[in-house]
Amino acid sequence: MTNDPNLTDRVRDALIAEESLREVSMFGGLSFMVNDKMVVNVRNNGDLLVRVAPERAPELLMRPGAAQAEMGHGRRMGDGWISVTAASVESSPQLDEWLDVAMQYNACSPPARPKSRRPRRNV
């Protein structure tokens, strides 16, 4: 399954007012970045990957459709990464709740690390 263009458009529309909004292909889907930090990712399997405050994860994982995010081969992602089923964000209020949680964390999380550049080798 490819990522849901409807969900992608809904996320884009909800975050369009963010001046620093940009979209990046990563994590098997399309990530929405604000202030160079990921807010959410619309995954190719139709789920939403949400970046949240790690200390809120236990509470947020109790919501319907929420699960600890995993990368390939069942490897668990950190406490601040939650996968939300597409069925759990079908309504605008459901999606808005997850985007609000993600944007709250984005606003108070540390700045993104600058990308390291490899020194060029003279050949």
Defining traits:
123 residues, alpha+beta, Aspartate Aminotransferase, domain 1, six-stranded antiparallel beta sheet, two-stranded antiparallel ribbon, 3 helices, 8 strands
Blueprint (SSEs and pairs):
Layout: H1 5-15, E1 22-26, E2 29-34, E3 37-43, E4 48-51, H2 57-60, E5 66-68, E6 70-71, E7 75-76, E8 81-84, H3 92-108
Antiparallel strand pairs: 1-2, 2-3, 3-4, 4-8, 5-8, 6-7
Helix pairs in contact: 1-3
Pfam families: TfoX_N
Protein name: TfoX N-terminal domain-containing protein
InterPro entries: TfoX_N (IPR007076)
Task: Give an overview in words.
InterPro entries: TfoX_N. This is TfoX N-terminal domain-containing protein. Residues 21-104 form the TfoX N-terminal domain. It holds the Pfam family TfoX_N. With 123 residues, the protein is an alpha+beta fold. It has one domain: Alpha-Beta Complex (Aspartate Aminotransferase, domain 1). The protein contains three helices and eight strands. It has helices at residues 5-15, 57-60, 92-108, and strands at residues 22-26, 29-34, 37-43, 48-51, 66-68, 70-71, 75-76, 81-84. It has a six-stranded antiparallel sheet. Strands 6-7 form a two-stranded antiparallel sheet. A hairpin with a 4-residue loop joins strand 3 and strand 4. Helix 1 (5-15) packs across helix 3. The longest helix has 17 residues, at 92-108. The N and C termini lie far apart (44 Å). The model has no long low-confidence stretch (mean pLDDT 88).
